[in-house]
Amino acid sequence: MAIARPIRLLGALCILLVIGVIFYVSHPTQSLISVGSRLQDGMKSDPLLDPTGEPEGLLWRAEDHDYSPDSTESARINATLLVLVRNEELGDLVKTMEDLERTWNNKFNYPWTFMNDKPFSEEFKRKTQAVTKAKCHYELVPKEHWEEPDWIDPELVKESNKILEEAKIQYADKASYHRMCRWNSGMFYKHPALANTRYYWRVEPKVQFFCNVDYDVFRYMQDHKKTYGFTINLFDAPETITSLWPETERFLSEHPEYLADNNMMEWLVDDKLRPEHNKKANGYSTCHFWSNFEIGDMEFFRSEKYEAYFNHLDRAGGFFYERWGDAPVHSIALGLFEDASKVHWFRDIGYRHVPYFNCPNSPKCSGCKPGKFYEGADFLAKEDCRPNYFKYVGTH
């Protein structure tokens, strides 16, 4: 007996529905993953307490490809470990290099690029090269990239820095710190030695790495179309950036076309978690990626939108008249001009820059306690902006 056509159609639809449910459970779409990773009810417990594995998707491993240091057919892509450092920081830097070589770079042999506003000593070159099989490059920062631009008023700098000192703002009176912040904000990627380099991993002296990382992080960034990777997410001192957000709003009013559709504006302007910060910073939550660790695509910083933004800020003078840091500048630019899905939390990279940690729950890690965020006085717990980031952007 033949089955009626409507019944056959209904049966087919039921079968398709079952197949769709099975596919959804086993293969959720990226957009659903992103939405599902948002902690709508806040961060009830640290996600790093959960078992932590590697990122999903294609990963390049040293045992599967040629990463030998002198290979002309190497699987390495156009990337470097980037360090702004002084000769006198050599001892601290060597310890950091040993950490990162042991946990990651001894497998992949990516080159190190050291930058300094003074020539590197022969001792510095000898001792750093002894730590790694990879190539090391020693570069001098051009004076025009380092010193104050000619539109900055030295007398106004003195007066404004004095006000910051009286407010007990750290490094307020150190010209080198202001210069460093400006250089890291808008100059590092313009150095001639990096002209043909696309990806960088920023490394600083005195930081620690705790976990074995067994995949090529630069290939991960490239293959998964990531622009920026971070480990730690903090609040900034609002007194150091009082005019940064107003200047940003002024720039946005002139260039609304640069605002990304899937931006992170809610994270940048939240006034619930630390309302006093938002008020003092004139509308900015002060949340930022702690940029002493960052893995980034320099094409973003070389883009028209970022260059225009940096030039606007540079002309405003806040790197010298206030104490604008590269961390909030990078973070605001990424939060406004880049698609949120292109920013990645490297939860599996164990990291410490005193006094904060990114410490995952993984058998690949040793030397730090999973989920530990800070070491020191309890007030440091308030500086954690991850709850806001996970709420508005997600844990991806």
UniProtKB/TrEMBL annotation:
Q: Which UniProt keywords apply?
A: Glycosyltransferase, Membrane, Transferase, Transmembrane, Transmembrane helix
Recorded GO cellular component terms are:
Golgi apparatus; membrane
Q: What is this protein called?
A: Uncharacterized protein
Gene Ontology MF: a single term: alpha-1,2-mannosyltransferase activity
Stored PANTHER family: ALPHA-1,2 MANNOSYLTRANSFERASE KTR1, MANNOSYLTRANSFERASE KTR4-RELATED
Species for this entry: Talaromyces rugulosus
Which positions, given as ranges, span the membrane?
7-25
Give the record's family classification.
Belongs to the glycosyltransferase 15 family.
Q: Name one GO biological process term.
A: protein N-linked glycosylation
